[in-house]
């Protein structure tokens, strides 16, 4: 037998296991009851549906859709619906649990859920996506509801799909129910401030964390991976607060200017250039992944999951990582980051600005009232700042990193609610 190349050490983790490994550490630190542990480790409800759709060429194609409600003990469950070929029930389960912890960390009265349809929206026409969205909504009409389970956009979906979902649900109910979904277009009851909400929360978390590690915004440098919704808003708002953003990246690579990038110009360039920074001139162009290894004070991964792993974590030089993306750091890399003394503002805290303003959207819909952008921003900034302070205090109390502290806070809140409500 010839030489067999050893398999590379892969750090791409099963998302459910990755979530559970953090959950387990926090549950141990908290001394969580075994009974409550057993309740929380599995989702409350998971539904898989089959969706036969007439395609534009007249053929019928069958899609598979999932909705997982991890917990609704704190209130109606909340979580996005993802359209992607990589959707699996395991991933949806992990993301649903993540939403439970995220809502609990920022102390909004929601449980956690997630949905997904295995499909490639880029290869489908608007009509096909509309029929798929309406079929999914009809099949999930018993699960969804403004007091039961409230979907939102996620990867591959946006305001357009949320409008179809709201319309289909409203037809089934025989009345307009805009509070059944968030992330809607403004005219249908969407909230001002929602577009920038996640990036804004990243900015608030970054400034709070900088204060704790002794970084002064006007003297700090920052690199941001991903220049989509979250990354570009975080870049813009951090720049406005004096932070020098010296690098941003997208799928076309990373763009570095040691004197600080002109973020408004980058955004304008991207908007005029099919959504990409490709060809942007007022910066040096380096390979995309190298943005993670720049000598900056603050690193904001705001692109995708599992970008900081055991394979590359040693090369990270930042003093502070603020997780704009969901799951950008693999669970196995956590230990090395902690050894290196890097502070991490974790995803379930740092990117919770989006779900916070989604909550405001639901509140406004239920009140039949519209808030100004100023009111939305002021209230979400307060929620994000308070959440950071609570997580920081918990990290000192338990002598654990911020990520585990965030899980401790969240699990403790959910566990206490179970204890009070009882009824098993
Ligand atoms: P988006 O699609 O608007 O932008 C993603 C950006 O990342 C794009 O610029 C893309 O080119 C870039 N990108 C993708 N792969 C990359 C790579 N390998 N290297 C460098 N850049 C890469 O998405 P978004 O809404 O900004 O979401 C980004 C992350 O934030 C995701 O993990 C998402 O789950 C998370 N998140 C988003 C929100 C929200 O409100 N949009 C809320 C919470 C969490």
3D structure, described in words:
This protein has 13 helices and twelve strands. A hairpin with a 2-residue loop joins strand 7 (244-250) and strand 8 (253-256). The chain is of the alpha/beta class and 424 residues long. Residues 1-10 have low confidence and may be disordered. Nicotinamide-adenine-dinucleotide binds at residues 198, 225-231, 249-251, 288, 302-304, 324-326, 351, 354.
Core attributes:
five-stranded mixed sheet, Rossmann fold, alpha/beta, single chain, 17% strand, 44% helix, binds nicotinamide-adenine-dinucleotide
Quick recap:
This is Glutamate dehydrogenase. This protein is of the alpha/beta class.
Number of strands: 12
Tally the helices: what do you get? 13
Low-confidence stretches: 1-10
CATH topology of the domain at 197-350: Rossmann fold
The ligands bound in this entry are:
nicotinamide-adenine-dinucleotide
Please tell me the overall pLDDT.
Answer: 95
Please give the CATH class of the domain at 197-350: Alpha Beta
Radius of gyration: 21 Å
Order of helices and strands: HHEEEHEHEHHEHEEHEEEHEHHHH
Distance between the termini: 58 Å
As a percent range, the share of strand residues is: 15-25%
Structural category is alpha/beta
CATH architecture grouping of the domain at 197-350: 3-Layer(aba) Sandwich
Strand order of the largest sheet: 9-8-7-6-10-11-12
CATH homology-level superfamily of the domain at 197-350: NAD(P)-binding Rossmann-like Domain
- Helicity, in percent? 40-55%
């Amino acid at each position: 037998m010839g030489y067999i190349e050893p398999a590379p050490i892969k750090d791409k983790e099963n998302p459910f296991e990755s979530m559970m490994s953090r959950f387990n550490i926090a549950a141990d630190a908290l001394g969580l009851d075994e009974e409550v542990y057993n309740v929380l480790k599995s989702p409350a409800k998971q539904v898989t549906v089959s969706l036969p759709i007439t395609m534009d060429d007249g053929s019928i194609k069958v899609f598979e859709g999932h909705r997982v409600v991890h917990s609704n003990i704190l209130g109606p469950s909340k979580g996005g619906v993802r359209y992607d070929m990589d959707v699996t029930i395991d991933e949806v389960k992990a993301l649903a649990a993540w939403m439970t912890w995220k809502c609990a960390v920022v102390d909004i009265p929601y449980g956690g859920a997630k949905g997904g349809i295995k499909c490639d929206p880029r290869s489908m026409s608007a009509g096909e996506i509309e029929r798929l969205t309406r079929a999914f909504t009809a099949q999930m009409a018993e699960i969804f509801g403004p007091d039961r389970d409230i979907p939102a956009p996620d990867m591959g979906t946006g305001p357009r799909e949320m409008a179809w979902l709201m319309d289909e649900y409203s037809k089934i109910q025989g009345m307009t129910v805009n509070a059944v979904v968030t992330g809607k277009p403004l005219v249908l009851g969407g909230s001002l401030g929602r577009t920038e909400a996640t990036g804004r929360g990243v900015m608030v978390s970054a400034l709070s964390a900088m204060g704790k590690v002794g970084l002064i915004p006007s003297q700090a440098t920052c690199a941001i991976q991903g220049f989509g919704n979250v990354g570009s808003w975080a870049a813009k708002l951090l720049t406005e607060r004096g932070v020098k953003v010296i690098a941003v990246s997208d799928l076309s690579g990373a763009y570095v200017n040691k004197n600080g990038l002109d973020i408004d110009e980058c955004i304008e360039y991207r908007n005029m250039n099919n959504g990409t920074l490709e060809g942007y001139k007022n910066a040096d162009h380096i390979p995309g992944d190298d943005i993670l290894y720049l000598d900056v004070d603050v690193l904001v991964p705001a692109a995708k999951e599992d970008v900081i792993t055991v394979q590359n974590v040693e090369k990270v030089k930042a003093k502070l990582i603020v997780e704009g993306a969901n799951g950008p750091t693999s669970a196995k890399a956590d230990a090395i980051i902690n050894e290196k003394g890097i502070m991490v503002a974790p995803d379930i805290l740092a990117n919770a600005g989006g779900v916070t303003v989604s909550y405001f959207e639901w509140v406004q819909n239920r009140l039949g009232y519209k808030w100004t952008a100023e009111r939305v921003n002021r209230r979400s900034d307060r929620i994000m700042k308070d959440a950071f302070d609570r997580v920081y205090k918990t990290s000192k109390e338990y002598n654990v990193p911020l990520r585990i502290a965030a899980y401790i806070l969240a699990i403790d809140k959910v566990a206490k609610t179970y204890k009070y409500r009882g009824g098993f």
